[in-house]
Amino acid sequence: MKKIHYLLFSATLLAGSAAQAQIKVEIAGVGSNQIPVAVAAFADESIAPDQVSAIIRADLERSGVFKVIDAGQVISDSASPDLAAFRARGADALVVGSVTRQPDGRFAVRYKLHDTVKNAEISQMGGEVQPKYTRLQAHRIADDVYEKLTGTRGIFSTRIAYVKEDRAARNYTLAVADADGENEIIAARGREPIISPAWSPDGTKVAYVSMEDRKPVVYLQDLMTGRRNVISNVKGNNSAPSWSPDGRTLAVALSKDGNTEVYTVNSDGTGHRRLTNSPSIDTEPQFSADGQTIYFTSDRSGGPQVYKMSVSGGNPTRVTFNGNYNISPRVSSDGKTLAWISQRSGGYSLYAMDLASGQELRLADGATEPSFSPNGKYIMYATKGGGRVSLAVVSVDGRVKQRLTTKAGNIREPSWGPFMK
């Protein structure tokens, strides 16, 4: 029972009925020292399936980094806007653009970013896309604005994976959507629980655990072809997949030898290799950003704590010391921050640790299943409130908070996808 508790922690703690609608984003908080940016309506954007400027505004607002100012007018990227006027309105930057229908049915979406302080153009972007990709192009523009004004790569054009659950109907689906919850597709479904989705580094596959064989088995779903392969179905429980940064191997938790231990396995399902060797439960492995270290949860100290060890083996080192129950470690892509779930004072909270200094910060209460954004600036997690489970996002400094909800049902097990090349 102790092993099953660790394996099914996320699935049992946040049980409920399935979501029937796409995610709605609600901004629950904003950061301080926001960058004021004016966003103009794009010229002729009404001909496109999506209003490009509105998507850009929503992305920038959702980040919490920007104070978005409605320009109140249409400004094309070919125009010469009065930057001094926008500076007088308090804007440090101005976003303008246009949409043009091409003879082949595609849309040319172009934009420019102006610095109103220096009275100069900062960036520009143009591209021709199929009608169904106009929303994606808007996200890419928002990414460019974010990067040019903050120095950090934007994550608006990335995707997320999550599990939708209807326990009463025994219906479980693995869904993939844009980072704002739009364009949802169903990657896999079944009548038994699905847990622990994990994106491949190239963003084309998702590993996950399904109970359809009456025990946990790790599968790999190819999002491009729809093909599904078994990654690990050895004796006992197969759980908690995590990709190496190079995409060649996965770390998994297996009980094939009677006790749950951390293993690695090749991405084609071959070459199981045991890393931990203790009478305790070792589970929830996660690769470090450089692929040289494995973080994992173990109760070898008497209660669950986060440990780390070399991917080549050796003696584990304890990482978490505050609190008696620390699980679900996740490491940011830049290798600077560790996130995990800690049970203190009777509740589950999301914590983050600066790995260089060891300083901890409590980011959110009532949280489980954390997942870092690919730029390391945000963490998505599952949270229960109002009788259902939804997803939420918090910045690593705790200043920006969002909630992603549906009208009914539960969404859990979030996994934030990588940057797409």
TrEMBL record:
- Kindly give the InterPro entries that the UniProt entry links to this protein: 6-blade_b-propeller_TolB-like (IPR011042), Tol-Pal_TolB (IPR014167), TolB_N (IPR007195), WD40 (IPR011659)
In which domain of life is the source organism classified? Bacteria
Which keywords label this protein?
A: Cell cycle, Cell division, Periplasm, Signal
Q: Which SUPFAM superfamilies match?
A: TolB, N-terminal domain, Tricorn protease N-terminal domain
Q: A Gene Ontology CC term for this entry?
A: periplasmic space
UniProt GO BP: cell division; protein import
| UniProt subunit comment | The Tol-Pal system is composed of five core proteins: the inner membrane proteins TolA, TolQ and TolR, the periplasmic protein TolB and the outer membrane protein Pal. They form a network linking the inner and outer membranes and the peptidoglycan layer.
Q: Does the keyword Cell division apply?
A: yes
Question: Among its keywords, does the record have Cell cycle?
Answer: yes
Summary of the function given for this chain in its UniProt record: Part of the Tol-Pal system, which plays a role in outer membrane invagination during cell division and is important for maintaining outer membrane integrity.
State one Pfam family annotation.
Answer: PD40
Membership in a protein family: Belongs to the TolB family.
Where the record annotates domain TolB N-terminal, the positions are: 24-121
Q: What is this protein called?
A: Tol-Pal system protein TolB
Indicate where this protein resides in the cell. Periplasm
Annotated signal peptide: 1-21
